[in-house]
Amino acid sequence: MIDLRARAHSLDPHVLPSRPCGQPLGPRDGVIACSRVEVRRERDGRFEVEGELDVSNVEQLGDALWAELRGGSSVVVDLSGLAFMDSQGLRLFVQLALHVEQRGLGPVVLVNPSPAVRRVLEISLPHGMPGLMVREERT
Asked: What topology is assigned to 4-135 in CATH?
């Protein structure tokens, strides 16, 4: 797991220590910490995911993203800090994309995927898919 406390200056100034897996630190913001992954909801509404996303922790990210969709919000996920994603992470994003596409909602947006995650996406979805947008936003 990546310790965001060391990066607190570059993120929200009220980074709090992690709690047990799946427990958010605050309503609609804060950190959800699980084995090897941290999910942070930024002030602009996007989710920042860091660490490794796999079968052991994908449910916690899924819960947060599905809640956003149910609440009527769009889903934007920054994957620049995600070092690894297995097929369950890919499955989550495909399911979200199918959901928004079937309901005529805006796409699920994956921003700045790390090289390893970009490779998984390119191999698995070489032509992309409706309801899912992958883009770079480097500054």
From this structure: Transcription Regulator spoIIAA (3.30.750)
pLDDT digits (tens, 9 = 90+) for 43-85: 999 999 999 999 999 999 999 999 999 998 999 999 999 999 9
Whole-prediction pTM value?
Answer: 0.76
In this structure, the strands spanning 108-111 and 76-85 are parallel
Contacts of 128 (CB under 8 A, 6+ apart): 134
- Rounded to whole angstroms, the Cα distance separating 58 from 21 reads 11
Q: What is the DSSP letter of 20?
A: S
Q: Distance between alpha carbon 30 and the CA centroid of its chain, in Å?
A: 14
Phi, psi of 99 (to 5 degrees): -60, -50
Q: Strands of 132-135's sheet, edge to edge?
A: 30-34, 37-41, 47-53, 76-85, 108-111, 132-135
